[in-house]
Specification:
The protein has 404 residues and is mostly beta strands. The chain has one helix and 32 strands.
Length: 404
């Protein structure tokens, strides 16, 4: 009994307000006035058990206003918890207060000792192809991103290690590089090997490196099974000396002993293209172990275009039974459903009367190219038009006759 009481006392000990530690894990240095940074990532780690409470992050005035509505727009704010830590870290959605400086608050439901989470300002690991970025201030300075914490009923108090982000005028070797991808165009759903080449446009010293994030809807990088998609290999050209490379959370990290001017590394990536036509960006950053920086020029993000096949994605849509005669006893016409086949993923179906009145709307969501519409019993006999569209901008119109 006494042991149980001691254990209960330990796990319920209230940590003091202002406890914990934080550091800038992404964007510790950013080039003055740059507009296409991945953003700033701040990691907070608890010094004790937090069952309730709040952690806040202050974004200084002069930076891009933070927002939580559109991951494609500058300043998007999100949080990230490693999948391995999600039993120990439970947090709510970030909220934004103020008009510059801004305070981003994150409610804590549960945070075990020595566990933490990341606040991403200008990016999201859930929307890899929609890296919003932030615009760095024009004034060269060290900007403090104040971090505060408190438990339930406490007062938000600054921790002892709030991180700084340096806006610099000359990055030296940080962020000095360019990247290309071959091929630049692939067709939807095809599998093949892509080659990403990173070239150093300034020398990179020992313990510097790069990291690469694949786009949303593409396979995460992996190095364990060459037969599966996502598999990557790294090879170095003359003047580039790779110390090691590894994959973490689907991202590829490469550390160099050194890279001379105009030397390069090639990354071969086995991938299956998504089923959606779009332009997809691979996000690349560079830096060293202590000062990770994000490449500021948009042309360093290699892009690949996913194009359609030889025929339109909606060219083969079929609707049946047509005419539709519910429960007439015949296999060819009688049932309670109209089936749409030959659809593309996320195709939208809208059913209209001849007078243009919308009577139903649905979406193909499971990727099998079919949708079964259970026709309402009160829907009148008549001619109906089916407008079918998809995210690629394609559309087709089908006519169906309902006879009751």
């Amino acid at each position: 009994h006494s042991i149980e009481n001691k254990y209960y006392q330990v796990i319920t000990t209230k940590v003091p307000d202002g406890s914990g530690a934080a550091g800038a894990m992404i964007g510790a240095k950013i080039l003055q006035g740059s507009t296409r940074n991945f953003g700033v990532g701040i990691y907070y780690e608890s010094a004790g058990y937090m069952n309730g409470g709040t952690v806040s992050f202050e974004i200084p005035a002069g930076w891009t206003p933070p927002q939580t509505t559109n991951p494609s727009e500058f300043g998007y704010v999100s949080t990230y918890v490693s999948p391995d830590d999600r039993d120990y870290v439970q947090i709510g959605l970030p909220q934004i207060i103020g008009t510059g400086p801004w305070t981003v608050t994150v409610p804590i439901s549960k945070l075990d000792i020595n566990q933490g989470f990341a606040l991403l300002y200008g990016g999201s690991l859930e929307y890899k192809s929609k890296i919003s970025g932030v615009e760095a201030p024009s004034a060269i300075s060290n900007y403090k991103f104040t971090v505060k914490s408190c438990t339930n009923g406490g007062t938000l108090t600054e921790i002892s290690s709030s991180p700084y982000v340096s806006v610099i005028t000359n990055p030296g070797y940080y962020g000095e590089g360019k990247a290309t991808i071959t091929p630049e165009d692939v067709q939807v759903g095809t599998t093949g090997t892509l080659k990403i080449r990173y070239t150093a446009t300034a020398p990179m010293p020992d313990q510097s490196g790069i990291w690469i994030i694949p786009p949303q809807d593409w396979p995460d990088f992996q190095v364990t099974n060459a037969n599966l998609t996502g598999y990557v290999t790294v090879s170095a050209g003359s003047g580039a000396f790779v110390n090691y490379f590894y994959v973490d959370e689907g991202m590829l990290f490469i550390e160099f002993d050194s890279m001379s001017l105009n030397s390069y590394v090639d990354i071969e990536y086995k991938a299956q293209a998504p089923d959606k036509k779009d332009k997809y960006y691979f996000i690349i950053g560079s830096g060293d172990r202590g000062n990770e920086i994000n490449m500021e020029k948009i042309d360093v993000f290699p892009a690949i275009n996913v194009t359609g096949g030889s025929s339109s994605g909606l060219a083969n849509v079929m609707v049946g039974p047509n005419p539709f005669k519910p429960y007439d006893g015949k296999a060819s016409t009688g049932s309670d459903r109209i089936i749409f086949s030959g659809l593309t993923t996320k195709a939208t179906i809208k059913i209209y009367t001849v007078a243009g009145v919308l009577v139903a709307e649905m979406e193909e969501s499971d990727g099998d190219g079919r949708y079964e519409w259970k026709v309402p019993e009160n829907l009148a006999s008549g001619v109906y038009f089916c407008l079918i569209t998809n995210p690629d901008g394609e559309k087709t119109i089908k006519k169906v006759i309902i006879i009751k």
